[in-house]
Amino acid sequence: MNDSDILDAVDHRIIAALQINPRAGVAEVGRILGEHERSVARRLQRLLNLEIVHFTAEYERLRSAPGHSAWLRLKARPGCLEAVGDTLARRVDALNVAAVSGAPGLLWCELAVPDRPLLHALAEGVPGLPDAEVLDMCLTLRPFKTAAEWHAPVLTDEEERLLRASLVQPLPVPADRYEPTPTDERVAGLLRHNARVSLTELARELGFSTATAGRRLASLLERRVLRLRTAVDPALLGRPARILLRLKVRPAGLEKVGTALAAHRDVHCCTAVTGPYALLAEVCLPHEKDVYGFLVDVLGPAGDVTDLDTAVITRAYSPGPGPDTPLRQAST
Q: 1-25 burial string, b = 16+ CB within 10 Å, else e?
């Protein structure tokens, strides 16, 4: 049995709905999808029990205080690939970690870097990780699409519209940067653990009224400081082939290409970065044989793309807080 066989089409639709709106209630999801509320609740509980989905929150790195987002291409020493990948994934500052094809021991990792001195230190290697060499490093300039914004393409346009209608809408012109307060960080911590935590429980943990807790949460979402995410392995949704693309793009076409890729249903994430490859993108497809069609049909007409590099993600590690220390502490 394939991993995707443990889910059926209704499971896929429920997950997609919660990817669009992670805090949508089971009654709302059932009404929009045409499923009974009790059926949605039962299926959701099964997904949680099997640890197929995880509701979390993450900072918008370019709008909040935690600092830079750095993408590193690493080469692990022979025999150390799994150990290096697992160690990276356990770090509290790891956002994405993946082993890729192309050469033995290759890894891509996105790290949250809180300050410029630590950014400089990464040129010599990741502190506390002696078995890996940093081959390349680039910084996020603009995230056109994050993994939190991708959802399984199984809903109708109308279903998607209805699910988005109850989302907290961001302010039209948010501040470029926002310094989270200690209370904001407590809210973020609770949502990172469970983005579907009820306002009643959130209020109890914070010592606020329910109304105040709701305003605190809404403020962080309106200012785009936090992004809620329904995390799930795309392979379980019938898209096991994950491809990492590095694209060289003419500066005049960077916005156009990045925006077009972000709108494509097969693109899991797309980011403008420093360095010779101006765009990094991850594509999720039903099979590796579909990669050729994506390159020809989607990137082929994009005349501003002058070169590309492709790599198959052979293993995506699940990042999350663990026993290892963040960069700030590891470097001291």
A: eeebeebeeebbbbbbbbbbbbbbe
